[in-house]
């Protein structure tokens, strides 16, 4: 995580230097390098660094790279009429394979009638919804929100032993996660034009996160947030249903 943040800083530093020199009249790169394509290439490069799910980075690199090549060299031109459906196909295939457990090595999705699943497998695409989990040994899972949002309530759940990983992918969407205030959460998310916030508050007034108490169960957040957000909250416990 620290190395990834360092790489993000380096990328931003180089972009800033290039634009500053250009604005001062010192052209070290062709003008084509200062278009929106380079922003997509920079985002894609950052997302590929140290990220297990490479699909978002590849998509951003492909869009920016192909468009830049069209401007720089005699490259076989690909019109947007072909490019954007191809992007949708890649995103759709990635979502399907990811939630089928094929490209992540994860477990298969639990049946919808499972009363208290130990893993989340949630997809919000141009929509959203609320789900509640009362697992006695929550192990994490995977969540995807694209142009949509999910509201997940884990207030009555208990973490399983050790480190429990929740992998998320957010693009132009959002995820709200309600968890007990005493849970230890390790944030290992990659964010580009998006953000993560932990708004859990104890009665003594401080946020509980990444305390370093390794003997206690940990919820580890991994994945990517693009043009969206993920928020952690805590609520009073809900009465359990019999």
Defining traits:
10 strands, 4 helices, LiaF transmembrane domain-containing protein, alpha/beta, elongated, 27% strand, 242 residues, 5-stranded parallel β-sheet, 2 domains, single chain
**Domain unit count:** 2
Question: In percent terms, what proportion of residues is strand?
Answer: 25-35%
In this structure, how is the largest beta sheet organized?
5 strands, parallel
State the order of secondary-structure elements, H for helix, E for strand. Answer: HHHHEEEEEEEEEE
**Poorly predicted sequence stretches spanning 5 or more consecutive residues:** 102-116, 203-208
Distance between the termini: 42 Å
Query: Which strand order do you get reading across the main beta sheet?
Result: 1-3-5-9-7
Radius of gyration: 21 Å
Query: Would you tell me the structural class of the helices and strands?
Result: alpha/beta
Globally, the shape reads elongated
Please give the count of helices: 4
> Helicity, in percent?
25-40%
Mean pLDDT value:
74
The total beta strand count reads 10
Concise summary:
With 242 residues, the chain is α/β, with parallel strands linked by helices. Helix content is 30%, strand content 27%.
